[in-house]
Write a structure and sequence with these properties.
It is a single chain. The protein is an alpha/beta fold. Helices cover about 30% and strands about 20% of the residues. The chain is built from twelve helices and 21 strands. Strands 2-13-15-14 form a four-stranded mixed sheet, covered by helices on one side. A four-stranded mixed sheet has the order 4-5-7-6, with helices on one face. A four-stranded mixed sheet has the order 8-9-11-10. The radius of gyration is 21 Å and the shape is globular. The relative contact order is 0.15. The mean pLDDT is about 95.
Length: about 400
């Protein structure tokens, strides 16, 4: 499905309810599978969370999680300790190009049995579920936090818990802290000090209902829309000031891009400031919140300002190589982008071409990050339904703001 977005001059003041965080939901779904008396409220309606629920409910040997990277990592660990169960975990063509070896090696340190069905280091993988014999594991700290969180989520179900030693500089710390906080919410004790994560063994937890906070990554697109608007406010629910999500750094980052955040009771209201001074800090480090890099880069392009973003090394192994994709699509629109393996530099530019068709590369965030540019030009979004991976209601919600979509 390709969508054409008409150029609009401004947006309407609106209130929107954003679906639950995919990151929180998928962690809680694994914990619910281990401790069935947990109830989860405000579950994400994303494709990824739906695929996670389907996989956890399936008795089939072959489990296909399509494009769902979080599900691939978390389920690898979950099925590895599911004693007596054999599972072949597979996914889309792109998923079979995304590395899994670091997590597999870590699980093998614990005594798990996992083999590769095709190319070594990549899905599909065959998992022989068993009770691990070891309770200590080490892995490089500068890898995707999903590998680390996958180990943390199964740790409390092991007879002696788990110690995870992270070697080197840790990236995406907020996601590790999110996992630790969610474990604490259900009654599992753990700690994270000096690159050592310790999770205590826990046979059972008390019955409890856990409410998933709405997704800050999804909120990022509305920060971009407000930044590119003239004078408007958008209220989003349900959010909290003390968030577990690293992407809540949007509050501080978008102050530099002309957006003020006002916290209400379970809401945030985004307001365009009256006299914005557009200028991001040079070398803005997004290693703790890489999922908002695309949104920030496109916002800066739409505002005609430059930016230099760092800490982006994990973007190359996402749904697509997001750095290459950003460079290609922004340059189609008339911008100039320079990238390395972990940085992006956008040059200031007052030129935005019109009637450009944006390729999305099977990446939900490419579609949503570029949509706000309808406030600056006419453009088309290819394969626009890819947004269902994390935010199925996105196009309906932007229509409520006054976007004209053909």
């Amino acid at each position: 499905m390709n969508l054409k977005l008409q150029h609009i001059s401004n947006i309407e003041n609106s209130t929107l309810q954003i679906t639950g965080s995919k990151s929180e939901t998928n962690r809680l779904l694994i914990l619910q599978a281990l401790y069935p008396n947990i109830e989860i409220e405000n579950v994400s309606n994303s494709d990824d969370s739906g695929l996670m629920q389907k996989a956890l409910a399936s008795d089939d040997m072959v489990v296909d999680i399509h494009h769902a990277g979080t599900a691939m990592r978390f389920l690898t660990a979950y099925f590895a300790v599911k004693e007596g169960r054999e599972t072949v975990l597979t996914g889309s063509k792109r998923m079979q190009e995304r590395p899994i070896k670091i997590l597999v090696d870590a699980l093998e340190q614990l005594g798990c049995t996992i083999t590769y069905e095709k190319e070594e280091g990549y899905p599909p993988i065959r998992i022989q579920g068993k009770q691990p014999v070891m309770n200590k594991v080490s892995l490089q700290a500068n890898v995707s936090s999903q590998y680390i969180s996958a180990l943390m989520l199964i740790a409390s179900s092991l007879p002696n818990g788990l110690e995870i030693l992270l070697e080197g500089k840790v990236t995406s710390v907020p996601y590790i802290k999110m996992t630790l906080s969610l474990l604490s919410d259900i009654g599992v004790e753990g700690s994270y000090n000096n690159n050592l994560i310790t999770i205590n063994p826990t046979k059972s937890v008390e019955s409890k209902s856990v409410v998933v906070e709405s997704d800050w990554s999804s909120a990022s697109y509305f920060y971009s829309i407000v930044a590119l608007s003239d004078n408007t406010t958008v209220t989003l629910g349900s959010y909290k000031k003390e968030s577990y999500q690293g992407d809540s750094s949007l509050v501080e980052i978008y102050k530099y891009l002309g957006v003020e955040t006002v916290f209400g009771e379970n809401t945030i209201t985004l307001k365009k400031v009256s006299d914005p001074k557009y200028a991001l800090p040079d070398g803005l480090d997004l290693s703790n919140s890489p999922d908002i890099a695309q949104t920030i880069a496109v916002t800066c392009f739409g505002l005609g300002i430059g930016c230099y973003l760092t800490g982006l090394h994990t973007l190359k192994i996402k749904e697509t190589d997001r750095l290459e994709a950003l460079k290609t699509e922004i340059e189609k629109l008339g911008g100039k982008v320079h990238i390395t393996d972990d940085t992006l530099r956008l040059e200031p530019s007052s030129v935005i071409k019109k009637d450009i068709s944006i390729s999305t590369y099977n990446d939900h965030r490419m579609a949503m990050a570029f949509a706000p540019l309808a406030l600056r030009t006419f453009l088309s979004i290819e394969d626009a339904d890819v947004v269902s991976k994390s935010y199925p209601d996105f196009w309906a919600d932007v229509k409520k703001l006054g976007f004209k979509i053909l």
